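Moderator note: this is an archived Q&A kept for reference. The question asked for a predicted structure of one protein chain; the sequence and the answer are reproduced below.
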Amino acid sequence: MWIKMMIKELIINSEYENIKFTRDKIRRIIFEQNIPKVVGFAVEVALGEVLVNIIDYGLKNASDTIKLEIKIDFEKKVEIVFMYQGNPIPLDIIEEYRKIKLVENIEDVHNRGRGIFLIEELMDEVEYKNLPNNNVLIRIIKNI
């Protein structure tokens, strides 16, 4: 393969119907590049969970936007960075949910922690950052 890296940017409105659009777009990008299906599926599910969490808990107004930067290093990883301006992420709660690693049944995970649990389980790296001026960054990485 002669292309080593691809970078795409998307800006979406914070409406639930845009989650399906974004997942479909990411699926096409990933599968057109012959990235293993298991990697694509994991990225697609995690992406949907991150977007739901941002819309439900992060954004203040329905008109707010989410910027996504999709980086695919064809030899190493798929990385998606989500950026928005809104409510800060409660990092203490995220850390609490991150501790839920060994569960026998997904029903044992609290309703509000299931998305974070899925994201953490499916991705190889997850980063949450509260930045100045109510800017928030979430980065997910899946190794190929």
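Archived answer notes: DSSP finds four helices and five strands in the chain.
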